[in-house]
Amino acid sequence: MKVLFGVQGTGNGHISRANAISRELARYDDVFVDWILSGRPPNDLFQVRGKQSFKRGLTFVTRQGEVRYLATVKSNNVLTFARDVFTLELDHYDCLVSDYEPILSWAAKLRGKPVIGIGHQYAFNYQIPMQGDNRFNRALLRHFAPVDIGLGLHWHHFDQPILPPICDVPDGVLGHRSDKVVVYLPFEDQQEVLNQLRHISDHEFFVYGPDLSDADLGHVHTRALSREGFKKDLVSSSAVVTNAGFELISECLSLGIRLLAKPLNKQVEQLSNGAALSQLGYATVVDSITTAICKDWLRNSEAVLVTYPSVHEKLAMWLAQGRTQTVQSLSEELWARVEVHRGSALQKQIA
User: Fold this and answer.
1) What is the pLDDT of residues 214-247, one digit of tens each?
2) What backbone phi and psi angles, to 5 degrees, belong to 306?
3) Which of 97, 100, 129, 141 could form a cystine bridge with 8, CB 3.0-4.6 A?
4) What mean pLDDT is predicted for residues 282-297?
5) Is a pLDDT exceeding 60 seen at residue 186?
6) pLDDT digits (tens, 9 = 90+) for 303-314
7) Which CATH class, in words, describes the domain spanning 180-307?
């Protein structure tokens, strides 16, 4: 079976899922995968197995923690996007899969070819917590990368046929440095983030972000984006400060790491993620990152550990074996293996 798999590259979570699924699909000798990454230039974060191509695609422009819609319209080249859609070769593939990648999704839709969606955004086709929703945002979510079968991923099922998240973290015993905090706020002003953290000297902060380089500034350590370096710091940390993207928060929950989440303003997916985290009690959700907020959170927050199954392994098997199991059945099977641990129960798990 030959698969064409599209990946939206604007968020590292999409890339992390692709890396995880790629490793599992490589176990099947009769499955061959070609990959499309769009929305960002090629980089070493994308480590999939198989032929790769890179397209400009579509992306959002953000400044100071907020989506800028006018700048987004100006920055996207619609003619290039249309050309890539109409010239994308689909006829030689037995299966088309999109992780919210619009070129592949629209190429398949316009030619009447079925496409499978795997990703968090497809959960928004169901009744899940929403915030900042309006007709425009709902239409954008549904039509940005349309699919025929959408396998939505979320932290909880909300009584809907959606799946648990794909968590690309190493196996092994949990163990965290109590003073170590990883900070990943790519949509915020990085210097302002550093200014707020320099006043909290009883913790070691490892700050990853665009345009940052490796430097140790007392208890604040800046780091250039690195998949291996980030994972290493993540699994040894006790707390994470981040925006409300899906994949990193999923990984933190699977590791029992405390979370402070600041949703990207005017971005319905992140605002809705914040609403879901608050409803589930999985994180502290705030609308700004300040010294006072961080200090209070570090003193008073509690970690939550959610034991998600190996969803990427199951999905690779599902794709390789012909996709005969229904989405409802997949959902029920996977959620039956999920457990949530808090407080003393969490301490027993980690011990």
Assistant:
1) 999 999 999 998 888 999 999 999 999 999 999 9
2) -115, 120
3) 100
4) 98
5) yes
6) 999 999 999 999
7) alpha beta
Cα–Cα distance measured from residue 137 to residue 156, given in angstroms and rounded to the nearest whole number: 22
Confirm if 23 and 29 have CB atoms less than 8 A apart.
no
Confidence at residue 25, expressed as pLDDT on a 0 to 100 scale: 97
Contacts of 109 (CB under 8 A, 6+ apart): 115, 146
> Quick check: 322 pLDDT over 50?
yes
The mean predicted confidence, pLDDT, of the chain is: 90
Q: What is the DSSP string of 255-272?
A: HT-EEEE-PPBT-HHHHH
Would the pLDDT of 68 be above 70?
Answer: no
Taking the C-alpha atoms of residue 106 and residue 21, their distance in angstroms, rounded to an integer, is 22
Q: Is 209 exposed, middle or buried (0-12, 13-18, 19+ CB in 10 A)?
A: buried
Backbone phi, psi, residue 113, to 5°: -100, 135
Task: For 150-204, give the DSSP string.
Answer: EEEB-SS-TTSS-BPPP-----S-----TTEEEEE-TTS-HHHHHHHHTT-TTSE
Q: What residue ranges in the chain does DSSP mark as E strands?
A: 2-8, 32-38, 51-55, 62-63, 66-67, 95-99, 116-119, 149-152, 180-184, 204-208, 215-217, 220-223, 239-242, 258-261, 284-285, 304-307, 339-342
277 burial level (CB within 10 Å; 0-12, 13-18, 19+) = buried
Give the C-alpha separation, 63 to 270, whole Å.
Answer: 15
The predicted pLDDT at position 75 comes to 58
Contact 104, 232 (CB under 8 A): no
pTM of structure: 0.91
